[in-house]
Every structure is written in C-alpha cells, then in structure tokens.
UniProtKB/TrEMBL annotation:
Taxonomy of the source species: Bacteria, Bacillati, Actinomycetota, Actinomycetes, Mycobacteriales
Keyword terms of this UniProt record: Hydrolase
Database matches in InterPro entries: DDAH-like (IPR033199)
Coiled coil: none
Superkingdom assignment: Bacteria
Protein name as catalogued: N-dimethylarginine dimethylaminohydrolase
Organism: Mycolicibacterium pallens
Matching Gene3D superfamilies: L-arginine/glycine Amidinotransferase, Chain A
Annotated family: Belongs to the DDAH family.
Amino acid sequence: MTISPDVAAESTRTPRTQRLRHYAMTPPTYFTVEYAINPWMDTSTPVDARLALAQWENLRDTYVRLGHTVDLVAPVAGLPDMVYAANAGLIINGTAVVAQFKHAERYGESVAYAAWMAERGHDPVATRHVNEGQGDLLVVGSMILAGTGFRTHPHAHAEIADLTGMPVISLELVDPRFYHLDTALSVLDDSTIAYYPPAFTDHARAQLRRLFPDAIEVASTDAYVLGLNAVSDGKHVVHPAQATGFAEQLYHAGFHPIGVDLSELLKGGGSVKCCTLEVFS
C-alpha cells in the first residue's frame, strides 16, 4: 500500500490506542452449509472443513498475538452455525443476555451458550423477543447500536436497554445481504465507527451521521465481501483480507489494519466479527 508523506504524517497526528480485550470463540468443528437462512448460504457449495478450521485458528492466533484473551466454547454436533459466536448474546455490566434466535435451525445454540455463560458464573437471562446477540447489538462507548429489519426484533431493543442500563439506538437494515448490524457496521473505538450507508434506511443513516460525523463510509466493493465484519481493539482492526479499500481507509485514519482470510466461513454468511463474541467487563 502506497501512502503519501502528507497522509502518513496526518495519521501519526491522530494516534490510536489499543485496549486489551476478552473474546470467546467456538471452533468450526461441525461447520457446514446444510441450510440457507441468509443470502450468502448456498447448500450446493461444498465447504472445506480442514481449511475452515485453519482459517479460524489463524484468526484466534491473531488475537492471541495481539495480547487479547480468548476463551474457547465447546462446539456441539448438529449446530453448524455455532462457530458464529458473536450471535450468542451480550455480556456487559454484569448482565449476560443469551440470544433468542429467529430461525429454528439455530435454537440449540441458545442452550449451548447459556450453559457456557452459567459455567463462567453468569446468570444468563433471555429476552421475550428475538435478539441475535452481538450480531445486532454493538457496544460503542456508553451506548449500544442495535440492528433490526431481518433478525433482532425492535421490541428487543427496549428489553436490552432495561437489562443493561445502557441507551440503545435502533438502526433499521434494508438490504438482506446485510442481515445483521455487524455485517454493515464496525465499531473501531469508543467514538469511531465505519459503516456502509446503503444498508440502512434514511432515518438510520441520519442517526449515524448525527452521532458519528467522522465515521468511515465504505464502498460497495468492500461491503460486498463483508469487509465491515471486523474486530477492533482501538488500534488494530482485524478484518476480512479481501476488503483492501477499507484497509486503506483504516490506515489513513490512524488504525493498523490486519487482513485475515475467512473465505470458507464466509460461505455461511459470517466473517471476523461473526466468529468473535466480546466479553465486556
């Protein structure tokens, strides 16, 4: 990547600070595409299980090299999407909210992740309405951005606000390719986001521009490879390797982009963030 001296100097004037994180991940031991519940899934496309595991292990090892804590959740046979740990729920402010999935194929994941939460000493609670965890519930500083339109029910947003004691900002998605908020928006630090405007309603875009006037707006080329399904520690941003334009935008903004290949797991409609549940202290 070629960066002009002026841009590089500008980046150094806005240094980013790493904060060590705590993640939970589930190995793709049973990952396959045996049903289709989002536009990315095609049951006629074979999955290379060995490659999927190797790519996932590289993602886990990347977090460890950066100094982060990674807990492993045991996979369960018959739950091929359990690798997408971000959907498991939301753990913050002493509250562990377990996911309530929309599709029956994923119901068993709620049971498995609730058991894991309980083993860690949490008292998992469920919402009455559909919520798909950090797929649609993204913490930005002292607020939660909450997606709706395809998976999480808007009524669950008020439940999440009551359970966590945090303000929740509802954002409606309109493009089925971006069925979860974490496919169209990435949290970079406590005050910075990146997002793909066409994935949202006019109202949602207006809210985002009001709350984050300096947000990074990505192009379709990067959004269509789920480039925004990324994980940031405030300085390093681990993102799908194919999102090269987004990587350059991150560099210009003072972040350190780290591309990883999760092409096999993309066959199920998920990438870096989908595989990563952040545990907030």
